[in-house]
Amino acid sequence: RAKTSGRSSFRFFEVDMDASILHRTLLEQRLRAAIKKNEVQAHYQPILDLTNQTIVGFEALARWNDRDFGQVAPKQFIPIAEDCGIITDLTEHLLRAACKVAKTWPDHMCLNFNISPVQLQDTTLPLKVISILSETGLAPDRLVLEITETSLLKNPMSAKTILEQLTAARISIALDDFGTGHSSLSYLRDFPIQKVKIDKSFTLKMNEDKESAAIVEAILILADGLNIDVVAEGIEQPEILQKLNSQGCHYGQGFLFGAAKSAEGITTLLQNELPDNETVPEGAQPSS
Ligand code: C2E
Ligand code: MG
Ligand code: MG
Ligand code: MG
């Protein structure tokens, strides 16, 4: 009897597997086509200086809306792009578009852009990024590449060389989702990293959970000692903002300030956000 049920549950398992492989194959085909047709696009989420709540830049976040699958989350399609070897194409396409968009923002605003672990194995990455910058005219010191701790694990020497080439070109590196991965503090000493982003899982819970609060506090103290900028992700509540501010966390992003919006949405936002002293006073004449 046990044998029979074992066998039948194995068959169910197979059926499930088939369905998910089919689904994935379909997603993969759709994703390839979508990239070609320019249908995967970056949206932009504001990053703020928490001391005065002004926008200092935006993080580009990939968005894909398929006609049948609907809005597919990047957590779902980025791994597919990585596995089937189209992440390089996708990144180049998104980065080029994002740099063009960032070029239209005020000069002091940065563009944060996520780089997959796979790409930190690609020794041609620095050259590709630098050529996209020169092609689009975005100054390298306005670009922040976000990497994760896992990117540094697989081939640390090669990753280090790539990061050194990028920073030599005045591009900044941020360690994303800080505190979650195989956090080794020595990364901050051994790799050229100028910024860390506190993972939202800590920020979201820091008012209700002592451990999360302690981790946030420790990251802030550590970063201060290492002269590294900190961005807190996932700020949703005013109380959390207040607490981070009082602890000396300089930068942040989260739904409290706004989710990612299309390039056009950001243009509108920036027009409305401009402080009074930067708008053209009524009746003023252009001086040319
Ligand atoms: P990430 O780089 O850590 O991006 C932050 C994620 O947190 C985004 O999710 C953003 O929408 C979300 N978020 C921002 N503020 C809040 C908040 O206040 N509360 C909560 N609950 N969430 C918030 P998203 O856009 O779904 O992206 C998920 C992940 O997918 C990113 O995490 C990043 O690892 C990856 N990803 C997104 N776009 C790209 C891309 O163009 N290239 C690569 N390689 N990865 C990307
Ligand atoms: Mg990120
Ligand atoms: Mg993150
Ligand atoms: Mg995160």
Automatic annotation (TrEMBL):
Keywords of this entry: Membrane, Transmembrane, Transmembrane helix
Segments forming domain EAL: 24-274
Protein name stated in the entry: Diguanylate cyclase/phosphodiesterase
